[in-house]
Design a protein that fits this description.
Distance between the termini of chain A: 17 Å
Radius of gyration of chain A: 17 Å
Structural class of chain A: mainly alpha
Oligomer: homopentamer
Largest interface: A-B, 43 and 47 residues
CATH architecture of chain A: Up-down Bundle
Number of helices of chain A: 2
Helix content of chain A: over 70%
CATH class of chain A: Mainly Alpha
CATH superfamily of chain A: F1F0 ATP synthase subunit C
Amino acid sequence: METTIVLAALKLVGYGLSTIGPGVGIGIACYGCCVATARQPELQGRLFTNFIIGAALAEALGLIGFVLTFIV
Amino acid sequence: METTIVLAALKLVGYGLSTIGPGVGIGIACYGCCVATARQPELQGRLFTNFIIGAALAEALGLIGFVLTFIV
Amino acid sequence: METTIVLAALKLVGYGLSTIGPGVGIGIACYGCCVATARQPELQGRLFTNFIIGAALAEALGLIGFVLTFIV
Amino acid sequence: METTIVLAALKLVGYGLSTIGPGVGIGIACYGCCVATARQPELQGRLFTNFIIGAALAEALGLIGFVLTFIV
Amino acid sequence: METTIVLAALKLVGYGLSTIGPGVGIGIACYGCCVATARQPELQGRLFTNFIIGAALAEALGLIGFVLTFIV
């Protein structure tokens, strides 16, 4: 029982670690998209597509960490 | 009992870790939005939308860490 | 008793961790707001609004960590 | 049994660590791609190819960490 | 037996640590390549070569960490 509880807590530590990178990465991607949209407003659709792709790739890493907390 | 208390503390450590990335990421997103708004004021609506989307994605990672502290 | 003291210490560690990201993030947001205001002084109201929203989102993560130290 | 559970938790910690770099890296790559596309819109195909290659290389490191959680 | 399992988990932690630098480094390399290609499109071949060399050097560090998980 004791071990199970420690496991649950350590799982959360693991998930927390897995959000550091994606969190920062999505922010940087969004920043780049905004600055770029400002320079070339007529490209906003293309720039937004780039941003969503990059953000989805980073977000996936965080969501995998979320899924792992239930299957490990 | 002892284990439960340690669990609660470790949960908080886990949540703390899960806020590092989102916190920084939201800041960077906001920074990009502000700079971009300054360059192209007429795009402020679009730039703000981009920022909110990026910030919401990062924020979600932190909120998941918050929810996890109660369900693990 | 010993465990309670260790708990208090770990809680503080957890809260400390939860302030790293928001602290940095708010600083970056403020920086972006300042730079942007300098470039387009007539937009200072809008830029300040953006900054406050971004800072509030990041700050919320830190405050949740603060609240958690009492309810976990 | 106890050791197995701790193992599972430590595996997740390991995966979490392995996503820090890729997460940030993909974000930076996406940012560079967006800014560059804004400067030279006629090169968007080439720039997007560069971004996908860089992102795939970084993503691979995270996915290897994901695979390792099952084979170690 | 117990020691073997802990070893396997610690191996993964080690690999995770070894991906932080390469992941970020590849992203920065890709970013530099994109920006440079946008400035001097006629140099895209040379710039892409530079990027691949830099990315390969960084990737090698991560792959060495991968190999080490089996030979240590």
